[in-house]
Amino acid sequence: MKPRFALLVGVVFGIGLCLSGMVAPSKVLNFLDVAGAWDPSLALVMGGAMAAAFLPFRLVRGRIPAPGRRIDLPLVAGSALFGVGWGLVGLCPGPALTALGRADPKAFAFVAAMLVGMALHRLWSRGATKTPPAPVADDPS
Amino acid sequence: MTIDWQTFTPWSSLFGGVIIGLAAGALALRAGRILGVSGIVAGLAEPDADRLGRAALVAGLILSPVLFGLVAPLPALRIDAGWAAVIAGGLLVGFGTRLGSGCTSGHGVCGLARLSPRSLVAVVTFVVAAMATVFVLRHAI
Asked: B89–A89: do the CB atoms touch at under 8 Å?
């Protein structure tokens, strides 16, 4: 990723978040509140984004690694935890970063907590993958 | 379920979504990378050659509402959740997106556009978990 191009992609992506309404926690929460006065806007954000990204991803198929196929517990448990956090505040990682640009103190607290959560996962997964020293095999000879 | 037609913004949400998808598609075409915000943020801790690119993309996201605000009014951006919810939500979003290997951008926009079954499971899981959370907060307590 060339930094100048990455900066441009970040700006364009963020402008899309602003225009779509994804940056507004209240709008996100009203989409998630299917039992209340439902605002279906965000379904159109996802639909529009998927439709626009479909062809570019078709074109790079084979050039970038194919998505994994394994449906496992970390995928489901992690997504469920993320969903609870998303529903508590109405912010997911992209809009949380754009919220920093509006200098909202709660946005800083949310992003700081998010970074701590990521660091905790890093520590936890390191501990989980640490394998005990292999037992010395009995020499059969 | 009642649709709130007052807050429904079909055109700006669809068009914003298309911009989001084009940004993700451009990054895939030019850099062969998946635009997953949680992965890019977590990757800031990895001291490899792409670190500067990831930092530039994050900087672009933070700058975007400032640029957007120059040409159009930003949507209502207040974070209504209390401080405890903001901290808990941030921790859950950070830990959950790492455990589940992605968030709304990586699994949602990119994964679904690539027709990844793993991402479909992730998206259904986090949307249902978020809807359940909002239901409990707004209607059950």
From this structure: yes
